Amino acid sequence: MDTINIKIAEDYTKTPGVREEIEGDFPGEKFLASILHPKFKQALEEKKKLYVDLDGTAGYATSFLESAFGGLCRIYKDPKIILENIILKSDDDPFLVDDIKEYIKDANVK
Amino acid sequence: MRIVIGIVIALLGAAVGIAIGHYHGVPLEDKINIVDVVTLLATVFLAIYIPNFLEKYIQDRRSEKDVVIRKVEQLQNSFKEVNNLVNVCYQTGSVTQSHSQLIIGRFTTISTELDTTKTLLDYCFPSKFTTELNNLITFRRRYKNIVTGGRFQQSNYKYDAVTKSEEERLFGSIDREICLMIIKINRA
After folding, report:
1. What is the pTM of this model?
2. B180: part of which helix (H) or strand (E)?
3. In B, which residues are within 8 Å of A96 by CB distance?
4. ipTM
């Protein structure tokens, strides 16, 4: 299967930070705008899956994840579009992938 | 080796019986009473079964429970460490960079420990703790969302009274669930 890959630890930062750019370094909002959304858009256009490797960082706060992945869902309005076209990988935290899927499902509820 | 010892003991018993009968004139019954035979067989069965199989089974089961309980207690301690860190942040009125990194790191540890606990419980007690595990998995997510959600890691972020109260309530639920799980593992 063809994929477009993101490895957060290499492509963005090893220390993911806050929710929004005005709050501090390496926010989820900036990750969404500069990497996640453009790559996801490219994957949809090229009919590929977006493969996101979450390993190798110091860990993720809910604020960062909700802002990035929940934010992506708010752009496309439909969790199904995101969930069907994204592959999440996390060996460091066995429950991280499920957490992110919940943020995606809950994104438009808020 | 055990079989040889058993045969030797049986032969010694027979020899002693014959000797006592021979030298002290103790009469030996020629007829065999079926009730006595059944009693003898039952006694021999219990003498072999209890030490060799039952005790071994009980000991093995105890060791398994100890391993699982040790892991569950580690998980409980990790949740307690997060609760302690949140208490410090609440009392000092700020969440420093080092505190936020410690909290995030502790949640990664909790995930790993919870996953190991799930693996051990599924292996030792298949489908017996599904409800308890699902409760803990849900509690962990809600607890992480409360502790690291909102404006967490913002430079002037602090836990407000409502968030702290919710955090304390969830921590209490998690602690209670884990204590009950330990008791249930012991009784299983």
Report:
1. 0.82
2. helix B161-187
3. 111
4. 0.88
